[in-house]
Amino acid sequence: MIEAHNLTRRFSAFTAVSQLSLQVPDGSILALLGPNGSGKTTTIRMLSGLLAPTEGDATVAGYDIRREPDAVRTCVGLVTDVPGLYEQMKVPAYLHHFGSIYGIPPAERARRIDTLLELFELDSHRDKKMVGFSKGMKQKVSLARALIHEPAVLFLDEPTSGLDPLAARTVRELIVRLKRTNRSIILCTHDLDEAERLADQVAIMRQGRIVACNTPAILRSQATGETLVRVEFAEASPLTLEALQTIPGMNSPHFIDHPDTSHTSSADGQPQVLALEYTTAQPKLLNPEVLTRLIMAGARVISVVCETRSLEDVYATAMGMSDSSDGSDESDSLLAENEASSGEVKGALPAQKEG
Amino acid sequence: MSAETQNAMTNATYTKTSSARIIWLIAWRQIVEAMRTRSTLVMTGFFLVFQTILVLISLGPMIQGQLSPREITFAGTFMAFFLLFVGLMPSTPAIGIASGVFAGDKERGCLTPLLVTPASNTAIFAGKVLGAVLPALAYSVIGILTYFAEIALFYGPDKLALLPAGLSLLILLVIPALTLLGTSVASLISSRVNTFQSSQNYSSLILMVLWTGLFALVFLAAAFGLWLFAIVVAAIFALDALLIVAGANTWRREEVMARQ
């Protein structure tokens, strides 16, 4: 479990992290999203006992990061984007070195190293020096090093940065496996897709503050509050746009051409309207009503697709308003929405607004 | 020194490693990495070859054949100062390595994994400095032993007796004192700058000033007597101890992180 309340870190006049609060239960992943310099790495350094906060408190695996930083470090594993290995060493010797520093008895150390080499599929490379390893393999060794003392908490600072897609996928799969071992994990990343796929909660940081924090699904829905619905027909819609517009709760209904080009033209060569699109804040209520009317009118519905906004849209909303001159930017409203809904999501504690 | 620690998740209990053991683990890793640095080995090899040529060219004509008492004194003093040279020169590359113990590791990303371990600030600093000092001392010992071996081999073991006992002993003491000073200063600078490049620049500047002062002191001491030389050696050892203790007490991993 990781809990932070109003963590702030200043470097002289520069505030790297401001009033940051979060909670990561055991067995869950919090993804920290944000541009370079938004305070993600500083947050991780504070929580891993490497950097004392200027203000605020936090506990990691039950230890206070201010009063017990040594104890915190016994319970955390840290992986950065740079593997930082002694590359002339072989993997087992390298892991033995760190295992010794953590005070793990030799027999137990050897057992854990064997387990980790097997887990990370490095067993066949145990007799090779790491200097010849690919970046993906080095990152695996880095993960193994972070796990040698079986930490309760893992901090992963852009662990897939610079990896090829396959290596990145392997590392992501490993992260999911680590989560299943009941660890609390904080993952810093620029990769929105990675955050969406791996994280139970996503916190978007901007200028040292968390501007949005919730599950990826709730963040997406909160960004607009609306769902885009597309209904596809086998033939042209029997209902006109005017008839559809009378249904309460349906916003911006419009017909579009069928995405499949074989269906786009009628016999006279004109585009054939074979899909209806609209947005709604209440898809669960509206969609059955729309479908009932369409089917009653004789429409042959092929499919109904509901899309909420992507995390990328949410991220853009959180980031894009930073230049707003009136000071009441959209990211603040996103934050306000999260504050309002924080009780709905276990473990999601959005940051407090400044001032 | 030892204490039990419990892993929060696994409930695994194991003995906390003593500071002395952690210091040695860090130092040993540093030593192995230093010894594996090809450029250092090449430079050390170069100094040994250069030293051999000097022994053959400059020392040979001076100590071969029948020597008058005046020539014996002159040759002995020359051999003693040559001893200082061969003791210090091979350790110079190691001082370069010391410049990288913190800054170089930080650039390569090797420092953060160490800083995130439960090892204390003092243990990390002491381990790093010890790991920088020991290779430098090893290179000095190799240089000195090679020098003695070359004199014995080329001119006969009896020529070693030409070395003035008191001065030679003090020189053998001043070599580790200076090596320790050089590596300590370089390590201290390395721990407080951001890049290896900066560390090397500052270290070479400071060491240049220190060594100029040293040679001035040595010649001054030679002129005024061995007692003054002995005081200088003691003062350098005291300075070494002061630097290391002050460095260990003031170095904080947080400063390293804050500078990144």
Give a verbal description of the structure:
The complex is a heterodimer of chains A (355) and B (260). Chain A is built from twelve helices and 14 strands. Chain A has 355 residues and is of the alpha/beta class. Chain A has two domains: 2-199, Rossmann fold (3-Layer(aba) Sandwich); 224-307, Alpha-Beta Plaits (2-Layer Sandwich), CATH 3.30.70. In chain A, the strands form three sheets. Chain A has a six-stranded mixed beta sheet with strand order 6-7-8-3-9-10, sandwiched between helices. Chain A has a four-stranded antiparallel beta sheet with strand order 2-1-4-5, covered by helices on one side. A four-stranded antiparallel beta sheet of chain A has the order 12-13-11-14, covered by helices on one side. In chain A, β1 (2-11) and β2 form a beta hairpin. The two termini of chain A are 29 Å apart. Chain B has one domain (23-259). Helix content of chain B is 79%, strand content 2%. The two termini of chain B are 32 Å apart. The chains are: A alpha/beta (355), B mainly alpha (260). The interface between A and B is large, with 43 and 35 residues.
